[in-house]
Specification:
This protein is an alpha/beta fold. It has 14 helices and 20 strands. Strand 4, helix 2 and strand 5 form a beta-alpha-beta unit. It is globular. The two termini are about 40 Å apart.
């Protein structure tokens, strides 16, 4: 029995260690020239060319999330009917404690971090797309596993049965990876394809696509909303209600913006079976947010400056803009994935200036410059320098790119 690891990033390195521990053979396809700082068994074959690989020879093909199904090797694997799995597949049989999983186009990281914060880090640990390795924690941890799963990971999972699942929202994104909106949605749906109907599925009542998934699934449903007071958890603009009972006022929270109030609602519902109302409320009051997600930047001039670099799609940029009362000087741009920014046009009354940059900058500048004061720059550094000309005590400088950063940087950090 031999496995093929496609890619050799962090997750597949952990799987390699697991396979070696269990004396299981594996080969590696890696388009890099070498495997850095990793000792491999002598029998391990490292492939650099797709033409040298016969996928049908392998028990499973273990795909890292950065390899899309349209890549030449994965297309070959699919044609050969070889099973495709990922790190989650190996961790599932080892899980000993409750798993709370969240997905959605936006908000996953905040919700995962907030649930971990509420349940406390001595009893819960964030895993998956952020935090620790799911496989390692499933093997050795005695804590609840709070998972963030992206569509990249969910696409290769169809046997997942979390104790609590959360579907936050859905909008077009990652279409360079999935190619079609249908494939993107089908990947997201995998969070409930094998979930026990008696276990809670938490969903956004305000999102029609997510609501359709919930109604098709049925069973134990918990809804959250900022529009419909009939939802299990509801925010009326000032107060959070759970099952019709007032819990706390928004002024008691350190988070801002309707999108964050939705994140709070879903996190409360996720923790109802594990903590008391009093404990949940107290923890909500001390959560300061996630690094790189509407993160306030301290500065000597006491200006309103926020880093929202984890914003990688237009919907999240719109949510960030709407979190502020002051006029916004906005920095937008990055990798051109063909994202549709038309949703931003409905909110230009809140924007004083947009500074575009990066690969997508030119097209966006041509689209928006007739509508709002704008500028175009080659790099983020130039964009920041120019934007400071507009910043004062009455404005907010917001870096919320709405695009991935891979055209100029390794990641959002």
């Amino acid at each position: 029995m031999t496995y093929l690891l496609v890619g050799f990033g962090k997750s597949n390195q952990i799987i390699a260690q697991y396979l070696m521990l269990n004396q299981t053979r594996f080969h590696i396809f890696n388009d890099e020239t070498s495997i850095p700082n990793f000792s491999l068994p002598n029998e391990t074959i490292i492939f650099n060319s797709v033409k040298d690989i016969n996928p049908s020879l392998y028990y499973h093909v273990i795909k890292s999330r950065g390899n899309p199904h349209v890549s030449p090797l994965i297309k070959l694997v699919i044609e050969s009917n070889a099973p495709i799995v990922n790190e989650i597949f190996f961790g599932l049989p080892c899980v000993k404690h409750p798993v709370i999983e969240s997905t959605g186009t936006n908000g996953k990281t905040t919700v995962t971090s907030l649930v971990e914060h509420i349940l406390t880090k001595d009893k819960a640990v964030a895993v998956g797309n952020i935090g620790h390795s799911f496989l390692i924690e499933a093997l050795y941890s005695d804590k609840k596993l709070i998972m963030e799963l992206s569509s990249f990971q969910l696409k290769d999972i169809n046997t997942f049965c979390p104790d609590v699942s959360i579907f936050l929202n859905f909008s077009p994104s990652h279409l360079d990876y999935h190619l079609t909106l249908e494939d993107y949605l089908d990947s997201k749906k995998n969070i409930v394809c094998s979930q026990d109907l008696n276990k809670p599925f938490i969903y956004n009542l305000d999102d029609p696509t997510v609501s359709d998934v919930a109604q098709a699934r049925g069973g134990n449903l918990r809804s959250f909303s900022i529009k419909d007071s009939n939802a299990t958890a509801f925010f009326d603009g000032q107060t959070i209600f759970v099952n019709g009972e007032p819990w706390l006022n928004k002024n008691e929270l350190l988070l801002i913006g309707d999108h964050n109030y939705q994140n709070v609602l879903s996190s409360i519902l996720a923790c109802l079976d594990f903590e008391t109302k009093e404990k949940i409320i107290n923890k909500l009051k001390t959560f300061t947010g996630v690094e790189h997600r509407l993160e306030f930047i301290n500065n000597q001039y006491n200006l309103s400056i926020y880093n929202d670099s984890k914003s990688t799609n237009p919907i999240s940029t719109v949510a960030a803009v709407n979190a502020f009362d002051k006029p916004v000087i906005l920095l937008v741009g990055g990798l051109d994935r063909g994202n549709d920014f038309s949703c931003l046009k409905e909110h230009l009354n809140k924007i004083k200036h947009i500074s575009f940059f990066g690969q997508s900058g030119s097209d966006l500048y041509n689209e928006f410059s007739p509508l709002v004061t704008s500028s175009l720059h080659s790099t983020l550094e130039e964009s920041i320098e120019h934007s400071f000309k507009y910043v004062n005590q009455q404005t907010t400088l917001l870096f919320s790119p709405g695009c991935a950063s891979w055209d100029q940087f390794k990641n959002f950090e």
